[in-house]
């Protein structure tokens, strides 16, 4: 997210004299394109462009002219076009074409600075090379310094109005870099002695002092973290210019995968801070391409087949100092695999989309040829049930998207898709090759890309479950895969497969010598690996296996064996789930814990998940989020996600790319046993102070600082709450980028009233609880940390659903809960019992037949078993709840309040934007009385009952267990058809 100063996604609302709209193109429109030169140092600059719908200029384009210090510009006439496609070059074969995607520019004044496009005139108001030469402090002028340290903008504009005067045209005038972390602008106020001001990044993100604007006097003022200092000292006066370049990036490596290349390198250092890296690519027919990135990994797709490419990397700091180029790294691409066209996220507000959660391998089988039982097929009892662990697949899910849509759900959360490797890996959480989709899920015409595209075609989103914390116990292919001791003697030949160097494990293919798809001949060695530190390699121990076979030293993956490199993996066992070692040790012997504070692990994971962002997924559910320090999320992984989505799909898609983390706080406390570091809401915030540049040290510093500060020092938020009866623009300036699964409500859903009261108790410490993902049970737990699927009864299910679909947050349903599937059954017992007896049983038998849905919650036709499933009372309940929720915007994105309300589960919600004002009064199961509400006509969405309020009061009788009332101000009346619970 962009900043820590009360930034708003929309333009600021202040004086009525302001016209805060970005100009649209008109006939005869022009674009003045400003291009930043400081980090290019080209001898010449050309703009090669094509108006929208028009033809490209002749290469190399038109020459750009000097504008002001570090900027060149060119004004072009677009006619009736609403914008232009653009690239830049030096006239000698070096190009900046936005990493092959070109720049998509509009009209008016536009800046392109280090790959970032903004609406601004960086030279406005000046005629020479420096339009703002520094503080004058004289009468009639105001010099403003604005701190960008928290917001991280590359372009800053000052939108201002002298007292008694008029506002500048949006976005205002460009501010120049003054020194590290500061921009500056001097304004002539004439006879005025003060001005109103707001700041923005040229792309619609504003700091307008939370809607109040800033008042700045003549002389020198600073604005930092929403604090104005009048008659301030020059914040840059004592700072010597930064002329020291960062160190040269080291260990640059390039790895080709088809027609894509993943480039990684070690971080550079700088006397101030490294702010970005500049990657230069040569090779192929497209010439030289220069790309700017902020992380130490770059994934480049859509290259030419069977072509050698060479990459060099330079590091840059905030002052624009560039290191020398790194040693070159080369990679040769292979053949392009025939695949579906990459998708694009739907990019809409995630709060509008109820989520259906499936274990893909257990949902519906569309292709039996990719079913695999694995090494535990017999032992688990799955074989006796003809129920291989890998049974469901993408084809089966694609075939039943209309079933999910027919329920009214518009987002599908699927378990991890990366290639897994372990003895029992159907669930996806034992990743082995993070860059490859598990072939046991794919079929011809039903690849992962096909699933994404099929869902999007139906208006449905795909949320991919991702794991940053750990790999399988066999390591991570492409990063580190250890060799363990294994001898094919009389005892172990049944287990250890004969090595076959020509065979590559992919989970699906059968190795011909062993006849296994779970071949393991590449994981073992009788020869001690080079650099091994595992003590007593291969010597027998006193221990035996469950089968009675002798165990040898270094035979099994072990965190403390010495087989794992410390710059990639942590090398200890978990001692305390609530302690800091939960962040830096293995949780289980099948979960090898990444050293997520190391650049190698970070680069590997960022590069891997870039692939799935490029495919067009709509968001990530983050597994084991609590087991990675917040500093690492905030510094590395979350910014990398935002950067990649913005780069590939645009700013709007990035704003709505939904990241929600699993922070396993399984207690009823607001703060998890008093530990802020292990509480879900903690992860929704940016850091409160600066820590060491070293990620591992920073994690420890953060842990100690926050533990010492305690719960009272944590930030608070009103983002989920109404101000009286009024909706207010939320302040996401301190949002980390990660939303959360509402563990507190989840733990208390044994009773809906408990879930409601416990849930709202944590909302003031969550950045914005309207984005909380809310569910009753899941693939791990039921309420109260139960190991069984919810068995509270149909009435209780209906009540829980009525609460989830009308209270703040995003309602989420675990597959089959709509028919109380496997209620009371143990959710997971590993390979010690058949999957058919657990909460992870195969669901496809309930989906046999055909189903067609024309809209969300609208089933046109259904035959066979799926028709019976869709006729169940909870299915009808969910369908109508979705119908009501979609018709009442306040139930989707509104803030809430319980002020002036009596009732066990009762609240009011409102959402106001543009010309829409949606206000709803809700009560679940119980009676409620509302006071101090707006007068007007209220209609119940459940019954159609109409009430005219003239004294600010409304009383509602108890609707009954699982039933509810939703009185909407000026609402449409009854929505849908009465059923068992909504009547």
Automatic annotation (TrEMBL):
Pfam families: Alpha-amylase, CBM_25, fn3. Its cofactor is Ca(2+). It comes from the Bacteria. Keywords: Carbohydrate metabolism, Glycosidase, Hydrolase, Metal-binding, Polysaccharide degradation, Signal. SUPFAM superfamilies: (Trans)glycosidases, Fibronectin type III, Glycosyl hydrolase domain. Residues 245-336 form the Fibronectin type-III domain. The keyword Signal applies. Residues 327-351, 363-387 are annotated as: Disordered. This is Carbohydrate binding domain-containing protein.
